[in-house]
Amino acid sequence: MCGIVGVIGNNKTTDILLNGLEKLEYRGYDSAGIYVNNQKGKDFLVKEVGKISKLENAVTDDVQGLVGIGHTRWATHGTPTVENAHPHFSADNRFYLVHNGVLTNFEELKTKYLADVKFSSQTDTEVAVQLVDHFAKEGLDGEAAFRKALSLIEGSYAFAMVDKEQPDRIFVAKNKSPLLIGLGDGFNVICSDAMAMLDQTHQFVEIHDGEVVILKKGSVEISKLDGTAVQRDPYTVDLDASDISKGTYEHYMLKEIDEQPNVMRKISQNYLNDDGTMNIDSKLLDEMKKADRLYIVAAGTSYHAGLVGQNIFEKIADVPVDVELGSEFGYHMPKLSKHPFFIFLSQSGETADSRQVLVKVNEMNLPSLTMTNVPNSTLSREATFTMELLAGPEIAVASTKAYTAQIAVEAVLAQALGQAKGIAIAKDFDVKKQLALAANGIQTIVDEKATIKQLTADFLTDQTDAFYIGRGIDYALSLEAALKLKEISYIHAEGFAAGELKHGTIALIENNTPVIAYVNDGVGASHTRGNIQEVKARGAHVLVIASQKYAEAGDQIIIPEIDELISPIISVVPAQLIAYYASLARGNDVDKPRNLAKSVTVE
Ligand code: AGP
């Protein structure tokens, strides 16, 4: 989703901005732009619809300066056009501003303060920059005008603004949307995501909601909106630029699928000791032991990992679990149990739908844990506890290794909690052995790429619809498998409880309709076999993915041995590869599918 970069005090401003925007491409966007000022009265604004490469072509050699801001836009208010692309500017061309988020009261502000202003875009963002200008025209200096506008603006935002009358500083503010300060050697930067600026620095400073930052070449002044100064130490981001390169791969997605065996090993090494002990915060376990119900809150793929986790926690830690979509739960919260404990699952740690629930949970003083791939992310900072997914940077929009890492970390925590509670089954569930099996099992599947590519061609060429079906653990898995196929191949796919199909949706099965059936769930296996016969009888073209234990002659993909509870860690991999090859065959942009964003920072 929208990405922001900015730099002050470096004579390579334009290169740094464009390089940073390239690194933010993975977040998803439909237009991009930069504003550069040479601090001697000359400035440049370049905006383009489409890829960053198009913007780079439009930037001429004379676009040079010592301060600049840049933006990738994922359209919310107004279609993707040059006019709607950021940076936006005030009618008198004094203020230039980029924004990530959604302003909820922009119409009201426009009517109240800006009735006479001529707008050049359809965006909510332009209201913000015109509002600053409005207060400047009333006599406030740039900073006071910025603060006054912020005091009136409602909604989510990360703002970076340059005032042509004071080009020695960037005005920055944040509420709900992510933004970081990076400390360079003799210069400073801003970015939505540290990855955008790793070529410049590894030292970053967090900005919290409601804070304003005045960023200069040699200083970072953080304050609250009322002006109270804030002191905050920098932290080091322990990532290497090579961690975010594609290496020899054509696509990040395939690289990330292939990385999954190593992710399993890393999780095992980090959390599980050879002597059987675990590196899990004892305070977290004490808090969870008190819980009479766990509420797992997440979105998209992370929600699907939560559905798998529900079964694991209930069986191994003997605690009831609800799995909730953040976008629904926050606004339609059911009656909570007496001692709830919240688990936020989020690869990015920035998902606005999940975050608004965490804000409410904190207001109610309830304990929470964030499982995330991004330490220091908003959800990680704001929850009571954090566990890292340790999957390494996930760049492809379609989540793969974060999903399997989430299930693995859930299993680790469930066993630790089960053992702490003295639950018998937790003693038998050897998570270390299971993660080793998972690593080997994933490797077996990724080594079968050629077969899976051929099956994808056999089953999905020229198809517009497909079904994944399964029962129990395989139903949760089918939802994720179908989402993968939809988001990158654009084939309409549904994940379905195998037994539910006959209650209506079976009407859609006709000659050659692809149905991919999972048979890993012991209790449901024989019934799913029955459902396979039902769809076959109506002409479906059925591909079966079955565990060794329940496989039958003719099944196309066999899942190596693993405890059923965490079997989706392996059995999702064929679905990831099927989605990848279907997308490739259609000539789609595998890593950056249309309309999608990696980090969904608006509600
Ligand atoms: C998955 O492939 C998607 N990109 C999407 O569903 C994602 O899982 C969802 O937006 C949640 O993101 P998070 O894990 O970063 O919170």
**How many angstroms does the end-to-end distance come to?**
11 Å
Looking at CATH, the homologous superfamily of the largest domain is Aminohydrolase, N-terminal nucleophile (Ntn) domain
Q: What is the spatial order of strands in the main beta sheet?
A: 3-2-4-1-10-9-11-15
How many strands, what sense, and barrel or not for the largest sheet?
8 strands, antiparallel
Rounded to an integer, what's the Rg over CA atoms?
Answer: 25 Å
Give the domain tally: 3
Number of helices: 19
Q: Helix/strand/pairing class, anyone?
A: alpha/beta
Ligand inventory reads:
2-deoxy-2-amino glucitol-6-phosphate
Number of strands: 25
CATH class wording of the largest domain: Alpha Beta
Stretches where pLDDT falls below 50 for ≥5 residues? none
What is the share of helical residues?
25-40%
User: What CATH architecture label of the largest domain applies?
Assistant: 4-Layer Sandwich
Overall mean confidence score, pLDDT: 95
Shape descriptor: globular
Strand content: 15-25%
Indicate the CATH topology of the largest domain: Glutamine Phosphoribosylpyrophosphate, subunit 1, domain 1
